Amino acid sequence: MNRLYLIGIDIGTSACKVALFDRGGHVLAAANGEYPVYYPEEGWAEQNPEEWWSAVCEAVRQVIRKADIRPEEIAGVGIDGQSWSAIAIDKGGKVLANTPIWMDTRAQSICDRLNEEIGEEEIFRIAGNSLQPSYTTAKILWYKENLPEVYSKIDKILQSNSFIAFKLTGQVSQDLSQGYGLHCFDMRKGKWDEAMCKKLGIPMNFLPEIVSCDHVVGTVTKKAAEECGLAVGTPVVAGGLDAACGTLGAGVIHPGETQEQGGQAGGMSICLDEYKADSCLILGFHVVPDKWLLQGGTTGGGGVMRWFEREFADYERLMKEQTGVSSLNQLNEIAEKVKPGCDGLVFLPYMAGERSPIWNPYAKGVFYGLDFSKTKGHMVRACMEGVALSLRHNLEVAEAAGARANVLCAMGGSANSFLWTQIKADITGKKIVVPASDTATTLGAAILAGVGTGFYQDYEEAVEETVTVTRTHEPNPANKAIYDQVYDTYLELYRSLSGMMTKHK
User: Fold this and answer.
1) What is the reported pLDDT for 437?
2) Runs of H (alpha helix) within 194-336
3) Which of 232, 309, 281 has its CA nearest to residue 71?
């Protein structure tokens, strides 16, 4: 039986995506599986990993059925996932509790204490990242202090992609690109630092062995095959961080190349061939060997528009039934009629606190400049501009750290909006190219499987065969001049309001 295809699995925040690719990177079939985010208390955001697995199983079955192929024709499976999970499993592989996800900030006080006891500079020296509640580190310690009955049973802590790999193969793993979620991970060496583990209070035995992202961790077991429809014995690679896989799937494999992320979260990833860390940004290993990614990760990406559509687009959803035009496309149309700068309406997109570069879990979304002249179109465009302004903020901090981005490779659902992509080009002053935006992340995961199984000779060959630019956006100098003034207002707004964006007394 010829092995002709690759599967990429993406564990996103709102849904998993599964796609089947041929050698040329063409999608033969794709399916999504939704699952909820739970918000039991303010600052908490968690998910049930077993719900990820159920969604993956259903989506994989749908993909195989839609493509009308035999499971035995699949050469390998790659998995990417959201960052900074803390999935606690016992010796039998049972999930002990819901995992706090990247938006969760419940462990702020633990971070404050550790930064004081160990020293922010010492932690940053090893990890290359500041200690923040969004990361995995403090979540593990939160279990210890608040769920001792869970903590006492922990055998291993897994990340989102390694959990799905575990469900598929029965093998525990930790890929290199997700190591940055733990501050006992030496960002220069790509290894666990035993001394920092002791200082932080994280047992070494909780941490799986680190492997390369294209390493075949195992093959699909009989039990997993029965649940998801894959063939027994199908190779599964470790996979990696969703942003890093999306970066690969956008064709970013050389130093200086940059991915612009437009999924639920926003941000960017600049490819580096040397260690360059900044405490306001996020540094991790790329899924491509011997490369790092200096990242800006924001809470306000495509999720801002999903929120706005959910809460304020009843009319557009009603019109969709009559016209067939999606509510999001209708919102794009009304936003396009508004001038750049939104006639003074500025939006701070801090909808779940904010990560880089301000790192304030208590930051809030703000519309500034509302008056009776403003329309729904103004608010939609302001949302788009606010996300783009946060992107520019991260890019400028990265440039100050010595990592300059020249061209941005856009990916994620937001890249489907011509207007939003052009706004990002105008605000940042950067040329933006758009590969196959909806499939970049799953394609990156599939490429890892392809390289790991020998389906592709190397990453150069894989990218050359699979990544195609579909359109290009050049920045408009006149709009850039307008947005330079808006950007100053954006920065001043947060500076002025930050004193109010603190923990409620």
Assistant:
1) 59
2) 194-200, 222-228, 242-249, 302-312, 314-323, 327-336
3) 232
CB 375 within 8 A of CB 338: yes
- Tell me whether the omega of the peptide bond preceding residue 289 falls within 30 degrees of 0, making it cis: no
φ/ψ of 494, rounded to 5, equals: -65, -40
Token look-up 């990156």 returns 444
| The dihedral sign for the CA sequence 265, 286, 115, 161 | positive
Please report, as a single letter, which amino acid is at residue 433: V
| DSSP string covering 124-151 | HHHHSS---TTSHHHHHHHHHHH-HHHH
Q: Decide: 30 and 39 in contact? Cβ < 8 Å.
A: no
Residues 256-294: pLDDT tens digits? 999 999 888 899 999 999 999 999 999 999 999 999 999
**Tens-place pLDDT, residues 464-496:** 999 999 999 999 999 999 999 999 999 999 999
CB of 47 within 8 A of CB of 421? no
The two structure tokens encoding residue 263 = 């999924």
Q: How many CB atoms lie within 10 A of CB 503?
A: 11
The answer to whether residue 438 scores a pLDDT higher than 90 is: no
Kind plus residue range of the DSSP H or E element containing 34:
strand 27-34
* Cα–Cα dist 137/193, whole Å: 13
pTM of this prediction? 0.91
Identify the helix (H) or strand (E) that includes residue 428.
helix 418-428
According to DSSP, the residues that pair with 409 across neighbouring strands are 259, 433
